[in-house]
Amino acid sequence: MELALPLWFEVGSLVVLTLVLVADLLIVYKRPHVPSMREAGLWVAFYVGLALIFALLMLVLGDAEHAGQFLAGWLTEYSLSIDNLFVFVIIMARFSVPRKYQQEVLMVGIIIALLLRGIFILLGAQLIESYSWIFYIFGAFLFYTAVKQALSSEEETEDKENAVIRLLRRRIRISSEFDGSKVRTQIDGRRVFTPMLIVFIAIGTTDLIFALDSIPAIFGITQSPFIVFTANIFALMGLRQLYFLLGGLLERLEYLKYGIAVILGFIGVKLVLHAMHENELPFINGGEHILWAPEIGTWTSLGVIIGSMAVATVASLIKARHDATKHGHTLAEQISVDAKE
User: Fold this and answer.
1) Which of 170, 190, 221, 315 has its CA 20 to 30 A from that of 36?
2) Please, is 155 exposed, middle or buried when counting C-beta atoms within 10 Å of its C-beta (0-12, 13-18, 19+)?
3) DSSP 237
4) Are 299 and 122 in contact (CB under 8 A)?
5) Residue-range definition of the domain harbouring residue 324
6) Which parts of the chain span the membrane according to its record (predicted)?
7) By the 8 A CB rule, do 218 and 228 touch?
8) Dihedral, CA of residue 151, residue 152, residue 154 and residue 159, to nearest 10
9) What confidence tier does 155 reach under pLDDT thresholds 50, 70, 90?
10) Which range is least confidently modeled, 29-33, 38-42, 121-125?
11) Per-residue pLDDT for 165 more than 70?
12) Closest to 82 measured CA to CA, from 218, 259, 219
């Protein structure tokens, strides 16, 4: 289905969202601090409310299909962003980033993610426009990613340091201590890099890996570049505050990876079915469309996404509460105890 929204709405939306992101960045730059639970909660609620208002505007100015595709895309990207956030937690802990400066690191990570996703969205849209068979590749890649996601272990994620960081450690002089949020500092009259450089590179390469997963996933829901890009922006907005809101709870969402794996696997199958329905490859069905291949609707996709994340989250919280009870604590008390260790 070819979707079209008023040009003034698309341009106006991108301008407003850019201004909101710039304002958020200025707040971090002017007043670096650790936000309270109340502050973080209000910001997350504000950004979620903004996304829901945006979906409502799409419903009014477009139709239910526009709104449904945005909601499904936003929730998919939001769930993947939370998974991305978990890796950020590991990076912060590994490099002992002072909590006061974690906001700045997260903001840099979000900006890098937006830039990378913007590039991949443009490339993906062009590929889809030119080659309908690309959906076969996207679908297979997402299914492979889903299996890898389900089978991965926390230890593998924590122990893995990418080749770029290992090369930098060998080739450049890096101080052992942070100097605020500076990337370079001066020690004994010599200019050296701080560990912040390594942190930014680790965050950037993580963003690259997640962008490779997330863009094919959302193109399985909508082929509208505008919806793809705005869903990504809304998924990343408020992520910094969500990091502090969830705190130690994030590490206890043990089954989150299975919920994400189900979503990725489902969208992978959806993409392959769509490719079959639009098939033009001569060695498959003689180059003819495979008409019996079902098309999975937007609202079915939305239901699977919400259901998968809800089941994974509830199951994780039940297990986390059970584990805390075994140690004689409530879940909140266990989180507090672990944070002090």
Assistant:
1) 315
2) exposed
3) T
4) no
5) 7-339
6) 6-29, 41-62, 74-93, 105-125, 131-147, 192-212, 224-246, 258-276, 296-318
7) yes
8) 150
9) low
10) 29-33
11) no
12) 259
Residue where the block lists tokens 């309908």: 132
Beta bridge pairs of residue 186:
191
Residue 1 has a pLDDT of 47
Surface-to-core class of residue 226, CB atoms within 10 Å of its CB (0-12 exposed, 13-18 middle, 19+ buried): buried
Query: Is residue 1 domain-resident?
Result: no
CA–CA dist 239, 232 (Å, integer):
11
Write down the pLDDT at residue 214.
80
- Distance between CA atoms of residues 310 and 252, nearest Å: 15
- Once rounded to an integer, what is the mean pLDDT over residues 102-123? 83
For residue 51 the two structure tokens come to 């996304």
Average pLDDT score over residue span 292-299: 84
Residue length, the chain? 341
pLDDT of residue 250: 67
**Distances, alpha carbon 123 to alpha carbons 13, 120, 130, 272, 313, in Å:** 22, 5, 11, 19, 33
Does residue 289 form part of some domain?
A: yes
Number of domains in the chain: 1
Q: Tell me whether residue 221 is in a domain.
A: yes
Establish if 275 belongs to a structural domain. Answer: yes
pTM of the predicted model as reported, rounded to 2 decimal places: 0.80
